[in-house]
Write a structure and sequence with these properties.
Layout lengths: L5 E6 L4 H12 L2 E7 L3 H13 L4 E5 L5 H14 L4 E4 L14 H29 L2 E6 L2 H5 L5 H21 L4 E8 L12 H4 L11 H13 L9 E4 L6
Parallel strand pairs: 1-2, 1-4, 2-3, 4-5, 5-6, 6-7
Helix pairs in contact: 1-2, 1-8, 3-4, 4-6
């Protein structure tokens, strides 16, 4: 029997932008495989919202920086079915000026934000190629496009994601696997709560922060739009901050 229920694997889906993506995809008819590192309360809250929308939600707790743990968590699921969409949203920030940056601040960010994408995408892409279908959306950042003082580690990881996604798009397009990047600007989340708005808002032509729901709307389009000719692109959701 042909598979009729769509499934989305959302990496880092318990809070902030990831939580908004989970909710939007569930509203679009996706069952959700939601991964998170350790905030069980937030993950269960997201699961309740998905189930209230009439979709199923499977929770997977692991650290994407741990290659063995990632494979151990994903491989049993991939034996059951191949997800229709993969959204890589996992990311951490450890901001510091390079002159004062600790080795762990560099290593932790690169291992989670960039190595994590490799750890997750390799087994999933193999199955998508075998099935000859799939949508992959990578969440980068305006910092990966423009750079930002005090964020050399974070910007490097997010720029690396753009390069990785574009290269992957060239590899898998002929297999009907679409790969795109969504690059948020300043979005109202816990990560931006301490930014000085009086300094940031003048840099944004729309003169406001974005919302997680606005990012999720673009991700939903890339995951669910049937008439798709968008591939290997970086779509900015930044209020005009990068033009």
């Amino acid at each position: 029997m042909a598979e009729t229920t769509k499934t989305a694997l959302v990496i880092g889906g318990s809070r902030g932008i990831g939580r908004a993506i989970v909710e939007r995809l569930a509203a679009s008819g996706f069952d959700i495989w939601l991964t998170y590192r350790g905030n069980h309360a937030a993950a269960n809250e997201a699961k309740a919202v998905v189930e209230a929308a009439g979709r199923s939600c499977r929770l997977l707790a692991f650290d994407v920086a741990d290659r063995a743990a990632t494979r151990a968590a994903l491989e049993p699921l991939l034996q059951e079915r191949c997800p229709d969409a993969l959204v890589f949203n996992s990311g951490i920030a450890r901001d510091n000026l390079l002159a004062f940056m600790q080795d762990a601040e560099w290593d932790d960010v690169l291992r989670t934000n960039l190595d994590g994408f490799f750890n997750v995408s390799k087994p999933v892409v193999f199955e998508m190629i075998r099935k000859k279908r799939g949508r992959i959306v990578v969440i980068s950042s305006i910092s990966g496009q423009m750079g930002q003082a005090g964020q050399m580690n974070y910007a490097a990881s997010k720029a690396g994601l753009i390069g990785a996604a574009r290269s992957l798009a060239r590899e898998v397009g002929r297999k009907n696997v679409f790969v795109n990047v969504v690059s948020p600007g300043v979005i109202e989340t816990e990560m931006t709560a301490d930014l000085p708005k009086e300094h940031v808002l003048p840099l944004i032509p729309l003169n406001r922060y974005g919302t997680a729901a606005e990012v999720a709307a673009v991700v939903d389009f890339l995951c669910s739009e049937p008439h798709m000719y968008v591939h290997g692109q970086v779509i900015g959701v930044n209020g005009g901050m990068a033009i």
